[in-house]
């Protein structure tokens, strides 16, 4: 007879009494039984009496309840069913040492019951009706759910079988049935891509399973998927799919591959013919577009690449993908990436930054060269007119000296206080030399003369361009720059200098990357760091980093009474999980050297000892994310404002929503959405304000804080441009003002560095701006484009040298 163990305290006490009255128990079960006690135990072990237990692991009658997916929450077990002769019932036993019922039932089966692992039991084989083994139950559950079309329910059971019982005889068939039937169901539901993925997995896993039927299904699904892709304009995805299928099924005839290879060739021939017609009609832009689309549709189309080369020779054109379009053009703009980038095409700067060096930037004087005296108190500007192109060769020394003098004259529209503080006199030595006498030794006076040069310097109209290109048209997402008339006159018939540079604004980083890979654009001016890593794997794309980082910050831009308080701004810092936004949202979990949270307004450099970080105090640790402290500071600030209002008899300021503005690009939007969510967690009302395309700073009374990506590349110069009363932050803080003045009086690099570190410390505590993080920006271009250069600080720095290879 089968015996049941105790399940609760009642049966435990009964068994104890039984044992004390003379019953014996050994390691494999009861050998002498008190029958009166046994009847009580059996009664207590019915399902009704154990309903309050956590799980039923045995019973005298019936079968275990059907568990469904809940079965997987239980530990693996076998179910032993007993014969009527043994009084019936069942137990859940820990996995048995045998995995099949013996042919000749002799001897006993030893087992442990789930939940009573400390007790050992034994039952004669002839008292066991059957055993429902764990793996067979999993197989049964899997098969039943596949038959019912419940593939989500079948998957967990099948996964456990694959993991724990990979050699089961029927597993291959079961797994194949799952893939086949699931693929059919997904195809019926219109999930073509998912259906194809399952069919291909089935073919790889079990190539002999319904061989011809599966291949036929792959062909039909492929045809349907390709049709949908082409109709939706997803030609890139369709091309990739077709190329993959052509390679993987070279030994299998897929009718869909043959059909779509012919169809793409037909479309490519249409584009090629359209390109030839456009070329004949001298519609070079259309010809270029059609020719590239033709080769993209069918890379080996006869004459396709030769046609592209011919068009590029006749009319070189470069398409540049951008995330921000420019509406204003200023190559020295601190806070507007697009304006700075496109401004370099249209305008030259008196002193242009060419690269970064160990002691500040390296600058080029566009009218010649410079020489500074040994005592660093005299700077000579030497004009070399004979070497200059038109119109730069028309500059006159007295005009240039006058412009430099106006820059140092209070009240002038061109007045710049750092230059006024640096220079004491400006003189002319003949027609080709200007001498600037400095008040004190100045380590980098050239950086103070970054002045935009327009056509008025040469007798032209104010604002007219001096670069090699001029703005042609802005239409939709396109901004077209064409060679200026003066530059165009120098272009010969076989000159390959780009006649046009077209900026194509992309809605997202992924869209821009897709266009670059397809050849729709030739360059991409700014990459998400994760996209830069992915693009480096492409054999057709070159990826490079700009040598100077950008500093991302929040800049107060209104008279919002709370934002104006440093305690409240400090609360905003503590309420912003900058590390999480940077690494999780912007870097997508990638580790990018140089991308880091910062504690101040100056670049930290890329490495620990990077000379580019000469203004950054590494001993100042960026404030951590502490929302509870942020809430405390908000309440403290509110209390102080209430007390001050009562003392003065004024109205207590109300907390109005904080209007957080951001430029119309994807990176800024992602960052600001995350910032808003975190500020709202501490109870602050926030409204997001997207700036118009091309704008980086809001109009008055339209926002309270603006997200800025600033090119703080020369802290000696940019400290005032950023923090001064007329700078981006418009700070009137006296300590900030004193720090700026002392910086401008520095006589050597040691004093420059020491005073910048002090200014960093002041900015860290006073928070005229809220520092976020430093980003290392990258650009990418197709490798058939040469002359881009390395270490460039602006994308168009060498645009006049770009050529097609």
Main attributes of the structure:
alpha+beta; flat; 805 residues; 6 domains; 39% helix; seven-stranded mixed beta sheet; peptide transmembrane transporter activity; 24 helices
Would you give an account of this structure?
This protein is α+β, with helices and mostly antiparallel strands. It has 6 domains: about 10-130, no CATH class; about 140-255, no CATH class; about 260-315; about 360-455, Dipeptide-binding Protein, Domain 1 (Dipeptide-binding Protein, domain 1, Alpha-Beta Complex); about 470-545 and about 780-805, Periplasmic binding protein-like II (D-Maltodextrin-Binding Protein, domain 2), CATH 3.40.190.10; about 550-775, Dipeptide-binding Protein, domain 3. The chain is about 40% helix and about 20% strand. It has 24 helices and 31 strands. The strands form 9 sheets. It has a 7-stranded mixed beta sheet with strand order 18-19-20-9-21-29-22, sandwiched between helices. Strands 24-28-23-27-25-26 form a 6-stranded mixed beta sheet. A hairpin with a 2-residue loop joins strand 18 and strand 19 (about 480-485). Helix 1 (about 10-20) runs antiparallel to helix 2, helix 6 packs antiparallel against helix 7 and helix 9 packs antiparallel against helix 10. Residues about 1-55 have low confidence and may be disordered.
């Amino acid at each position: 007879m089968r015996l049941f163990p105790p399940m609760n305290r009642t049966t435990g006490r009964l068994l104890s009494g039984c044992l004390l009255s003379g019953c014996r128990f050994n390691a494999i079960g009861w050998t002498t039984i008190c029958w009166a006690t046994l009847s009580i135990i059996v009664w207590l072990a019915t399902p009704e009496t154990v309903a309050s237990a956590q799980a039923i692991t045995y019973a005298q009658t019936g079968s275990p309840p059907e568990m469904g997916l809940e079965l997987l929450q239980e530990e693996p077990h076998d179910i032993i069913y007993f014969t009527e002769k043994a009084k019936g019932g069942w137990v859940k036993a820990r996995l048995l040492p045998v995995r099949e019922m013996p042919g000749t039932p002799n001897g006993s089966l030893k087992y442990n019951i789930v939940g009573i692992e400390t007790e050992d039991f034994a039952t004669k084989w002839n008292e066991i009706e059957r055993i429902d083994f764990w793996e067979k139950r999993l197989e049964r559950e899997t098969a039943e759910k596949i038959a019912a079309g419940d593939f989500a329910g079948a998957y967990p059971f099948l996964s456990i079988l694959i993991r724990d019982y990979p050699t089961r005889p029927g597993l291959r068939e079961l797994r194949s049935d799952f893939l086949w039937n699931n693929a059919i169901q997904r195809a019926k539901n219109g999930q073509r891509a998912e259906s194809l993925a399952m069919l291909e997995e089935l073919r790889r896993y079990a190539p002999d399973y319904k061989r011809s039927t599966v291949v036929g299904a792959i062909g039909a699904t492929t045809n349907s998927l390709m049709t949908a892709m082409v109709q939706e304009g997803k030609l890139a995805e369709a091309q990739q799919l077709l190329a993959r299928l052509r390679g993987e099924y070279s030994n299998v005839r897929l009718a869909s591959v043959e059909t779509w290879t012919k169809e793409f060739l037909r479309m490519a021939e249409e584009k090629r013919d359209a390109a030839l017609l456009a070329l004949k009609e001298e519609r070079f832009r259309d010809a270029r577009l059609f020719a590239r689309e033709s080769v993209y549709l069918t890379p080996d189309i006869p004459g396709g690449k030769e046609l592209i080369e011919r068009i590029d020779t006749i009319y070189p054109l470069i398409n540049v993908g951008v995330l921000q379009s420019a509406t204003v053009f200023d190559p020295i703009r601190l806070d507007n990436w697009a304006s700075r980038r496109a401004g370099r095409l249209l305008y030259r700067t008196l002193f242009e930054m060419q690269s970064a060096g160990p002691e500040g930037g390296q600058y080029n004087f566009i009218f010649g060269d410079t020489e500074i005296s040994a005592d660093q108190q005299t700077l000579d500007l030497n004009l070399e007119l004979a070497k200059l192109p038109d119109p730069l060769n028309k500059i006159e020394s007295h005009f240039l000296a006058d412009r430099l003098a106006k820059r140092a004259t209070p009240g002038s529209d061109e007045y710049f206080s750092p230059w006024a503080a640096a220079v004491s006199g400006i003189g002319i030595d003949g027609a080709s030399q200007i001498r600037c006498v400095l008040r004190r030794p100045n380590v980098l006076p050239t950086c103070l003369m970054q002045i935009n040069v327009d056509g008025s310097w040469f007798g032209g109209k104010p604002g007219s361009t001096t670069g090699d290109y001029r703005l042609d048209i802005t239409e939709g997402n396109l901004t077209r720059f064409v060679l200026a008339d003066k530059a165009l006159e120098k272009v010969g018939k076989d000159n390959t200098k780009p006649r046009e540079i077209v900026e194509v604004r992309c809605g997202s980083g992924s869209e821009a990357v897709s266009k670059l890979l397809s050849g729709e654009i030739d360059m991409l001016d700014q990459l998400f760091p994760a996209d830069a890593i992915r693009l480096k794997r492409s054999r057709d794309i070159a990826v490079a980093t700009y040598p100077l980082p950008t500093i991302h910050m929040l800049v107060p831009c209104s008279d919002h009474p709370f934002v104006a308080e440093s305690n409240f701004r400090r609360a905003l810092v503590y309420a912003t999980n900058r590390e999480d936004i940077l690494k999780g949202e912007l870097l997508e979990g990638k580790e990018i050297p140089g991308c880091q949270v910062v504690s101040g307004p100056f670049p930290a450099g890329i490495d620990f000892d990077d000379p580019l970080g000469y203004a950054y105090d590494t001993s100042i640790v960026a404030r951590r994310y502490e929302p509870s402290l942020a809430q405390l500071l908000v309440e403290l600030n509110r209390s102080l404002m209430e007390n001050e209002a009562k003392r003065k008899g004024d109205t207590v300021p109300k907390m109005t929503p904080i209007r957080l503005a951001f430029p119309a690009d994807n990176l800024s939007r992602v960052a600001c959405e995350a910032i808003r969510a975190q500020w709202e967690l501490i109870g602050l009302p926030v409204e997001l304000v997207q700036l118009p395309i091309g704008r980086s700073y809001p109009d008055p009374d339209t926002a309270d804080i603006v997200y800025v990506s600033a090119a703080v590349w020369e802290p000696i110069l940019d400290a005032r441009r950023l923090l001064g009363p007329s700078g981006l932050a418009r700070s009137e803080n006296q300590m900030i003002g004193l720090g700026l003045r002392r910086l401008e009086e520095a006589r050597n690099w040691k004093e420059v560095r020491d005073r910048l570190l002090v200014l960093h410390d002041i900015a860290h505590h006073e928070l005229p701006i809220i520092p976020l993080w430093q980003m290392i920006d990258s650009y990418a271009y197709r490798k058939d484009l040469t002359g881009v250069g390395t270490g460039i600080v602006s994308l168009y720095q060498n645009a006049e040298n770009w050529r097609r290879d």
